[in-house]
Amino acid sequence: MIRKLASGQFRLYSQKKSRRTGKHRNLGTFDTRAAAEQHEREVQYFKRHG
What we know:
- The protein is α+β, with helices and mostly antiparallel strands.
- The protein has 1 helix and 3 strands; from the N terminus they run βββα.
- It has one domain.
- The longest helix has 17 residues, at 33-49.
């Protein structure tokens, strides 16, 4: 899940909420949406091949 911040940057959050905190985990902050989408693909790849 990618959200745009007030600063104009984009933040990648986990799909699932943490059971402990009830919030989505921050998976990185990026200057462009394309960079955030690329990192999301890398995360999905690692989840299956890591």
